[in-house]
Amino acid sequence: MTSTPHGVGRSLRPRPSGRVAAFFDLDKTIIATSSTFAFGREFLHKGMITPVEALQMTLAKTTFMISGMSGEQMDTTRDQLTNLISGWQESDVRKITEETLHTVLVPTIYAEARELIRFHQQAGHDVIIVSASAEDLVRPIAQELGVYDVVATQLEVKDGRYTGEILRYNKGASKAASIAKLAQSRHYDLSASYAYTDSDTDSSMLSAVGNPVAVNPDRMLKKRALKEGWEIRTFKNPEPLFTAPTAREVGIGTGIVAAIAAVTAGGWWWSKRRDLGS
């Protein structure tokens, strides 16, 4: 008999009229980090980014983990990161993520999320990861979890290289649209389906299903969840790590480290990124 994690299936509901799905956000919901920023050190070691860019990515990850990002900040980050990777070999990125997956991302998987995914799979539910991160970064961690349905941001690739263009940006309302499209093609009963996320930017994703769950919610999502009566969960294992590389590790001066850290703490680092990197 399948055990039921706390909060799942607590109340009696009508029998679903169609298939049931469980939609999971990735960052801060399944993993205790940002999949976008997690590989900064690895890209640095391969010579794909500069030491300053590596430190900026790590500090941006720390800011994201502490306070999250607004929709506007996410858009700014999207533009800056796509400019950064323009010209990179897609095969290089895939090789790095596959080779370092078990040292970089697997240790950050919440045990509670892994258990919950397993529960849904054993219950016969389709599990789908719906993320704003690039598909090349999302799919390896999904496969580690035995999840093969991924809806994520798609980057354009020509002649094996990223062009810096985005074919689909899977953020916010786009996640809800993706869920609706899947429900139509696969005959999901959304009233019986589940969604899990940490960010208020994904509130439309939660509104799309009958069983919305706010996981480690940011301030705005917690407020909305309390108002709407949505379930709130806290995943604690593992604890998020905010370790930034030292000046010695990245080979730049301590003055630059201090300057970047100060700007990050001020909350407006992203708007100044190009000035700092020039």
UniProtKB/TrEMBL annotation:
Keywords noted in UniProt: Hydrolase, Magnesium, Membrane, Metal-binding, Transmembrane, Transmembrane helix
Family matches, as Gene3D superfamilies: HAD superfamily/HAD-like, SG protein - dephosphorylation function
Residue ranges of the TM segments: 250-270
Record's signal peptide: none
Listed Pfam families: HAD (PF12710)
Domain of life: Bacteria
Family to which this protein belongs: Belongs to the HAD-like hydrolase superfamily. SerB family.
Name of this chain's protein: Phosphoserine phosphatase
Organism in which the protein naturally occurs: Corynebacterium atypicum
